[in-house]
UniProtKB/TrEMBL annotation:
Belongs to the GMC oxidoreductase family. Residues 436-552 form the Glucose-methanol-choline oxidoreductase C-terminal domain. Pfam families: GMC_oxred_C. One of its GO terms (molecular function) is gluconate 2-dehydrogenase (acceptor) activity. InterPro entries: FAD/NAD-bd_sf, GMC_OxRtase_C. Its EC number is 1.1.99.3. This is Gluconate 2-dehydrogenase alpha chain. The lineage of its organism: Bacteria, Bacillati, Bacillota, Bacilli, Bacillales. Keywords: FAD, Flavoprotein, Oxidoreductase.
């Protein structure tokens, strides 16, 4: 029988960006909050002088143990789903701070178009522009309503940047200036301006200068070491929950973190949750934590899986399009890039930072005319200087043997003589792309795994080819001697690595008929349950999701405070 603990005001499942922000905001208001994190505790000191590419980038030190829990994948319902036994397409974070510890730091705001994508697309092009089976919908909130929450996240994290000339209107400038412009970034900037495009510095959670945020958290500037993605930051220069919001929550005395706490069920009676059931993985003991409010802030797959395993909310049925939990899974279109080789120019590609780069949004969202194109939305195009680490980096021209003397010679020659311009395309949801519980495979506790049913569509292939052509044009303007354009998008597979930008499954909207949560993250079917994360996105944009997740977290924190005082469905 599970050990039952005293009731608290709020229990949070997963203490990453969303969980940390909500914990800090609620604890500052005097609510008693418990945060349950299934991984171990982390601190900045763990990463002092640890630039170990093999340990972190290839042996996945900071990621979920797939032998205990994984996802199963199939491209369509006609084939059997199989478990992901080794990391490939995406990386699932684990431990205090979650994916916020090992992210790159690219911190975009979704475009105004994104939040009203269905209505804006129909308004400009008519209903026939949306292909059969595509299930885009408005988010139930506008960019203008979201703007204050974007601003709050950026000021908390100290985002370094400059205004996006094609983005939504801002109420204030970024709290810190953009990062340094390297020579290759300047080349991209000059080339895109010559093509009448609109470059701007990639918004960065890697601080360009020392900064103290509104909560009094002081951090130092980025050292451009190039060990960001898949690594924790030894300087605390990269904003992550462990060095920003979690200390604020701890300082209140109202927040308690319990690590190694694997939440298995949301307990509920009728349309209200009563708490959660979790297992202490260090002892195997089952523990019940009663709470007035339950907040899910774990990763996309885990939010969906916990709701389905708890039988909370209406499971999505892809045959009828009814139900909501598991609906509108979306990914990212990463294919669409140009690699340039230079014979007489060398660059310092080893130095860099996770969000060091320059971006254009001329081909993102609906910033360009789609009337004669066979896709909607688009993608950001950028040059990124994230730091070429030695194990991963050996770009060579096509035709080079994959081993031997010539391979070695070209690997050395072109290590600092290549630049890449890449597109990151949006992913639109389709009725047959969804998440559900696998009927066969289970985790270490005997609970069903989450099953992913997804493949790329013609929409994605057309978008990838379009972005690739644009990338090639920019690379040509940058003067590369040899250009290799990757534009052919094959079937989706769980390998190799592509993007950890999985979205959807507990989507937000204006109606319980078509969405799982309202625009405060409140579950329509259980008013004291709130769900936060990229699982809220009805589709995925041409951007990294973290900035929008952070903004939604501040929005949800505000909603939870309102609910704690008055109850009911928030409007």
């Amino acid at each position: 029988m599970a050990k039952k603990l005293p009731k608290v005001d709020v229990v949070i499942v997963g203490v990453g960006w969303a969980g940390g922000i909500i914990a800090a905001e609620l604890a500052k208001q005097g609510l008693q909050v418990v945060g349950l994190e299934r991984g171990k505790e982390r601190k900045t000191e763990d990463y002092f002088m640890v630039h170990d590419e093999l340990r972190y980038a290839y042996r996945y030190e900071l990621f979920q143990d797939l032998s205990k829990e994984t996802v199963t994948f199939r491209s369509n319902e006609k084939v059997r789903a199989l478990p992901m036994r080794q990391y490939g397409s995406f990386l699932l974070g684990d431990g205090l701070g979650g994916a916020g510890v090992h992210w790159n730091g690219q911190t975009y705001r979704f475009l105004p178009y994104d939040f009203q994508i269905q209505s804006k697309t129909v308004e400009r092009y008519g209903k026939n522009k949306i292909p059969a089976g595509m299930t885009i919908q408005d988010w139930g909130i506008t960019y203008d309503e979201m703007e204050p929450y974007f601003d709050a996240f950026e000021k908390m994290a100290g985002i370094s940047g400059e205004e996006n000339p094609l983005g939504g209107k801002r109420s204030d400038k970024y709290p810190t200036p953009p990062m340094k412009y390297s020579p290759q970034m300047k080349m991209f900037q000059d080339a895109t301006k010559k093509l009448n495009l609109h470059p701007y510095a990639t918004p960065s959670a890697n601080l360009s200068e020392a900064y103290t945020n509104p909560d009094g958290i002081a951090r130092t500037a980025c050292q451009y070491c190039g060990f960001c993605e898949r690594f924790g930051c030894e300087y605390g220069a990269k904003a992550d929950p462990v060095v920003t919001v979690i200390p604020v929550a701890n300082k209140t005395g109202k927040f308690q973190i319990r690590t190694h706490s694997y939440v298995r069920r949301i307990l509920h009676t009728g349309n209200k949750a009563t708490g959660v059931l979790y297992t202490d993985v260090t002892t195997g003991e089952e523990i019940e934590q009663p709470a007035d409010i339950v907040v899910l802030t774990s990763y996309v797959f885990n939010n969906v899986r916990l709701l389905l395993n708890s039988k909370l909310g209406r499971p999505y049925d892809p045959k009828t399009g009814t139900g909501v939990i598991g609906k509108n899974y979306a990914y990212q279109v990463q294919k669409g890039n140009a690699l340039g080789f230079y014979e007489n120019m060398e660059f310092n590609n080893f130095a860099g930072a996770g969000a060091l780069g320059v971006t254009i949004d001329d081909y993102n969202g609906d910033n360009f005319d789609h009337a004669n194109l066979n896709f909607i939305h688009g993608g950001g195009i950028r040059i990124s200087q994230t730091g070429k680490r030695p194990i991963a980096s050996n770009s060579v021209p096509k035709g080079t043997p994959t081993w031997g003397k010539e391979f070695k010679a070209n690997s050395i020659k072109y290590y600092n003589r290549t630049l890449s311009v890449s597109g990151q395309g949006a992913s639109m949801p389709f009725q047959h792309h969804y998440l559900d519980l696998d009927p066969e495979y289970k985790d270490v506790f005997g609970d069903p795994l989450i099953r992913l049913t997804f493949d790329f569509e013609e929409q994605d292939r057309q978008l990838a080819a379009f972005l690739a052509e644009r990338c090639g044009e920019i690379m040509k303007e940058m003067g590369a001697d040899l250009i290799q354009v990757a534009k052919d998008l094959g079937p989706y597979d769980i390998v190799p690595y592509q993007s950890t930008h999985n979205t959807g499954g507990v989507i937000m909207g204006a109606s319980p008929d078509s969405s799982a949560i309202n625009n405060y993250g409140q579950l329509w079917d259980a008013e004291n349950v709130f769900v936060v994360g990229a699982s809220s996105f009805p589709h995925n944009s041409g951007y990294n999701p973290t900035g929008t997740v952070g903004a939604l977290s501040y929005r949800t924190a505000e909603g939870i405070i309102k609910y704690s005082k008055n109850g009911g469905i928030l409007v």
